[in-house]
User: What shape does this take?
Amino acid sequence: MIRVNTVAMYQDYACAVSTGRRFLTWPNGFTFLRLCCLPGFWWLLIGNEQQVAAGFLLGILGATDWVDGYLARRLNQMSEFGKIFDPTVDRLLFITSLIALIIDGRVPIWFCLLIGVRELSVGLTMVVATLFGMKRFDVTLLGKRATFALMCALPWLLVGSGDFGGSGLIRAAGWITGIPGLVLSYVTAIQYIPLVRKGLREGRDQPKTTVS
Assistant: This one.
């Protein structure tokens, strides 16, 4: 009896350690660190009106978007939790940053609203389609490029709103990347429609497994 209990305890411990490792990984830790920077961005922009510092922080958050995925592949620490946690944090950072920029008003509100409408529309579509059994598919390369362009444009427009030498060039760089990024984001949103339909069909066609 003692031996059986010892084995059971060991199995429970091993299961707990394995479960913990799915969450406590370097990629997930880095993603969480990026999430923790969000209040700092709000404090700099809204609470302290330091748009240049806030713009640099937003730029760093956008530029490090690829790091957690790289760490997951490099360290072989890919997990189902990370596949959900990473894009969720990315969208949360993106949407809440847009809200802060709209409140601040230094970046044109129409530009932020067009980005926000696209993000919310695509996000809600994916959530509803997933609830109806859509098979998950990866973001297209064009969609990644559009998001990257917008994540570069927003901090440049924010920093370029300052009154210092070179601010005009920075603001121009923001528009040079922002307008094409905005157009591409709507193009990819349209391209996602047949992918969602295909995912719904494949999700319905998948055989349902039963546990006996």
User: Anything to note?
Assistant: DSSP finds nine helices and no strands in the chain. Residues 1-20 have pLDDT under 50 and may be disordered.
